[in-house]
Predict the structure of Fe-S oxidoreductase.
Amino acid sequence: MQMGTRWPLGGPMPARLPHVVEIAVRAVEEDLTALAEDTQAWRWTLTWLEGNPVLELDDGTVIRYNPAEDSATITQPAIALEDEDDWI
């Protein structure tokens, strides 16, 4: 059984993550530095699902690892837009 962990945004990642997941984490963190939002208290949460890492950031961003392709998929939370015509 593998235990998950939490670490601060921009902090050192757990050593056992696949390299492509590390690249995905850094890409998300670089994108966040361009925003004016205060992210100092944000943390990553690592859980293991069927032996594969799943990472979730406090804003809802999720990174999943696909071992068959050795790839990482980043899913960012949807942004709700206020539109008075969305009832149509």
